[in-house]
Known about the structure:
By secondary structure, this protein is mainly α.
Amino acid sequence: MRKKRTNGEKLSFVEVRKLKAMLLAKRNEIISNVTTMESEALRRERTDLSNMPIHMADAGSDNYEIENTLGLMDSERKILVEINDALGRIESGTYGICEGTGEQIPKKRLEAIPWARYCVNCATLSEKGMRLKEYGRGYIETYPDKSIDADEQ
């Protein structure tokens, strides 16, 4: 289902093309970063296979570095999914439309975060653990996300 822009401020073809180029560049950067992190982690594992005794503090530092790298890789992969979704929205003609209100996401926000799927207000509600449910044009009902509460307990 294709959503209509309600505030009349449609992105131009040139603006969409510019934002698509930004998305593709960021995607390539993330893929490169993740590949580098993976190869560094594998290289570190291979060098740690020696028969030399390892001090407990060194092992703790190594484990911290590995956990930190895995966390960074996970964050990068999540952004990569968002970028691929944004590229899909460009192809479907729904790019730049808030998934909560159906209104145009401000151009400044898209320039800062080209993979944004929500306007600032909806993104804030989403980050606070509120699920967004669209009712009609531009009206949003929010309610607590029970899955978030269950994870915190």
